[in-house]
Amino acid sequence: MSAHVPETSTSSLKGWLGVAAITASLFVFLTTELMPVGLLTPLSESLDISVGVAGLMVTAQGVAAGLGVPFIVAWTRRVDRRPLLTTLLAVLTLGNLVTAVAPNYPLILGTRLLMGFASGVFWAIGVSMAMRIVPERHANRAAAVVMSGISVATVVGIPLGTVIEARTDWRTTFGIWAGLSVLVLVAVASLVPSMPSRNAVSVREVFGLPVRNGQLRTVLFVVVFFVLGHFGAYTFVRPYLEDTADASSGFITTVLIIFGVGGAVGNFVAGHTVNKNLRGTFVTGLVGLLVALLLLRFVGNGELGAVVALVLWGLSFGVVQLSQINMTLASAPDTFEAAMSLNTMAYNTCIALGALFGGLLVDHIGVTSVLWFGMALAAASLLLRLATGRAAKTRADAPEDDLAPTVG
């Protein structure tokens, strides 16, 4: 079963160009949100703050993206999606520009908070927009194309930001991303058709979904544990490698690219396995993530060990990421945007909390502690998925795996 997305009158070529514009939107939103991951050390040195405090840049944007999205999506439920997306991109552009020139850290933190609201709304509406502007038979492929923007961001965007910072400074990096955001805004305005909102859902109905829908509720808990663990550790990859492996800026850039390539491969592999065994794909990805963190802890003090660990970590993240999106869509196919807004709330809030908890651990215990934090939360997600997945298999209605929409 897959979410029903009515076919529109948009021509095939223009529809796919619109999908490309939405994918580019995901790229600039995600790279902006996670850019500080590769810049924590220069940011902390330039602004005279600790690495943990610098990590709050990720926290602030994640908190806003997570907590604000169900309300904003519901309040804008009758707004045409094209002007809504261009407005979100305008906020992103202005936020990157302010970050590039801000004279102090509090202004940067406040700006990231505002940018988070725009980011969260995009995550809730972007995939469904892409699915609506191509013929219905290609809707799920359009969703997969948009989600590939995650891999592009991790392979190209975040490492590119690190390279730009190494050659210039972190302010120039955010200034360039402001320019990229403008270009994407123009592309969306030109290529995405007018798109009246569908399946309007009120705030009360949005928050009532997990109360009525046990499968969605379970998925959201699984996502919470996985994202807390992953981002609690990943946010501090750079200082961890600098501290334990005496890694240079060039090596860190390389391993971030390697992580992104692994994510792209994992995304591709999962695209072919989620429909055959959604639960098995997700479980395999989580096991790989746990093994990767163990490798990074015990053999990551050398360059070869770090590379092996980051390859496996990226591959596993790509598998888990696509699996959890499919799990969310499968659990509530008839309330697509509402379910995605709750997923976005859980996901981005946990990005924020993961960065916050990781920063506290780094500042008070040491950078190695974030890996143990990541392993503990990933293990909790794995155990919950194993327990609830087994129960789901015994239900009289359709098995969970049969509910996964086709992706890829």
Automatic annotation (TrEMBL):
Task: Show the GO cellular component annotation of the record.
Answer: plasma membrane
Give a single Pfam family match: MFS_1
Q: Chief localization class?
A: membrane
Q: Which residues form the Major facilitator superfamily (MFS) profile domain?
A: 17-393
Question: What stretches pass through the bilayer?
Answer: 12-31, 51-72, 84-102, 108-130, 142-164, 176-195, 216-237, 249-270, 282-300, 306-325, 345-362, 368-387
Q: Which molecular function terms from Gene Ontology are attached?
A: transmembrane transporter activity
Subcellular location per UniProt equals:
Cell membrane
Keywords per UniProt: Cell membrane, Membrane, Transmembrane, Transmembrane helix
- Highest rank taxon of the organism: Bacteria
Membrane topology, from the record: Multi-pass membrane protein
Query: Gene3D superfamilies of this UniProt entry?
Result: MFS general substrate transporter like domains
State whether keyword Membrane applies.
yes
Looking up InterPro entries in the UniProt record yields:
MFS, MFS_dom, MFS_Efflux_Transporters, MFS_trans_sf
- In Swiss-Prot or TrEMBL terms, this protein is called MFS transporter
Organism this protein belongs to: Streptomyces coelicoflavus
